[in-house]
């Protein structure tokens, strides 16, 4: 069963706008990670936030984690057409190396 | 070298064929994974190897047989597959140092079973 649930399932915005994607999960985690996938090929790791962290930044990316609500959000600022891709959250369970992916958000950035 | 290399990139096989997917990494990672991904769906975990030993099998049918010959290589042997097994098969690796490490993914093998 899938741990994470992304919201929205699809998001279409104009270049320069910000994009926010949300992820909810159900069990205790070591960390939560966000990945990007272009056109059904390999996944690229974007950012990892540990269970004891609340916010993390990397370039135009900002991730928040609320363990009390079991939710996370990914903000991409000043989006570009090249950001068009599917974005997945993934949770690493406590006690093993099992990385479980959510359903993903398909982001389309229109030039 | 931060790459995970998967071969072949594409594979078409009949239901009576035996084939193997290969995955290689030289990052010194000691955890390696196989995921299956159907179109417009998230990756689903199949197997996890930790220090060359199978640690997780997500109730995968026996027609899929993983093998980890050494710390750099991971194979997935396929036999008597069904058309519904057609999917993108992704290999990944990470450093199992108590968790909190990113996984590196290969570009995948797109498998079609006819």
Question: Would you kindly provide a written description of the structure presented here, covering whatever features stand out?
Answer:
The complex is a heterodimer of chains A (111) and B (114). Chain A is built from no helices and 11 strands. Chain A has strands at residues 5-7, 10-14, 19-24, 29-37, 43-50, 55-58, 61-66, 71-76, 85-93, 99-101, 105-110. In chain A, strands 2, 4, 5, 9, 10 and 11 form a 6-stranded mixed beta sheet that branches. Chain A is globular. Chain B is mainly β and 114 residues long. Chain B contains no helices and 11 strands. In chain B, strands 2, 4, 5, 6, 9, 10 and 11 form a 7-stranded mixed beta sheet that branches. Chain B has a 4-stranded antiparallel beta sheet with strand order 1-3-8-7, with no helix packed on it. Chain B is globular. The chains are: A mainly beta (111), B mainly beta (114). The A-B interface holds A 2, 30-31, 33, 35, 40-45, 48, 50, 88, 92, 94, 96-104 and B 4, 31, 33, 37, 39, 41-45, 48, 50, 55-56, 88, 90, 92, 94, 96, 99-108, 110.
Q: Which structural category fits the helices and strands of chain A?
A: mainly beta
**Outline of chain A, from the CA principal axes?**
globular
Helix count of chain A?
Answer: 0
Rounded to an integer in angstroms, the radius of gyration calculated over CA atoms of chain A is 13 Å
**DSSP helix count of chain B?**
0
Share of residues in helices of chain A: under 10%
Beta-strand percent range of chain A: over 45%
Helix proportion range of chain B = under 10%
Produce the secondary structure layout:
The complex is a heterodimer of chains A (about 110) and B (about 110).
Chain A: E1 5-7, E2 10-14, E3 19-24, E4 29-37, E5 43-50, E6 55-58, E7 61-66, E8 71-76, E9 85-93, E10 99-101, E11 105-110
Parallel strand pairs in A: 2-11
Antiparallel strand pairs in A: 1-3, 3-8, 4-5, 4-9, 6-7, 7-8, 9-10, 9-11
Chain B: E1 4-7, E2 10-13, E3 18-25, E4 31-37, E5 44-50, E6 53-57, E7 64-70, E8 73-79, E9 87-94, E10 104-105, E11 109-113
Parallel strand pairs in B: 2-11
Antiparallel strand pairs in B: 1-3, 3-8, 4-5, 4-9, 5-6, 7-8, 9-10, 9-11
């Amino acid at each position: 069963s899938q741990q994470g649930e992304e919201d929205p399932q699809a998001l279409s915005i104009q270049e320069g706008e910000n994009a926010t994607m949300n992820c909810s999960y159900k069990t205790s985690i070591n960390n939560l990670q966000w990945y990007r996938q272009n056109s059904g090929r390999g996944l690229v790791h974007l950012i990892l936030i540990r269970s004891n962290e609340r916010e993390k930044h990397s370039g135009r990316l900002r991730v928040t984690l609320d363990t009390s609500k079991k939710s996370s959000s990914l903000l991409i600022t000043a989006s570009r057409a090249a950001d068009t891709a599917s974005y997945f959250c993934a949770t690493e369970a406590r006690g093993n190396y099992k990385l479980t992916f959510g359903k993903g958000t398909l982001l389309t950035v229109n030039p | 070298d931060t790459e995970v290399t998967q071969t072949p990139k594409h594979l078409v096989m009949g239901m009576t064929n035996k084939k193997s997917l290969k995955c290689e990494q030289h990052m010194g990672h000691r955890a390696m994974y196989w995921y299956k991904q159907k179109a417009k769906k998230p990756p689903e975990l199949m197997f996890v190897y930790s220090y060359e030993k199978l640690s997780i099998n997500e109730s995968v049918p026996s027609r899929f047989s993983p093998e980890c010959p050494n710390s750099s290589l991971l194979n997935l042997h396929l036999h008597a597959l069904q058309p519904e097994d057609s999917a993108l098969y992704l290999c990944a690796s990470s450093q199992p140092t108590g968790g909190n490490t990113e996984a590196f993914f290969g570009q995948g093998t797109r498998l079609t079973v006819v």
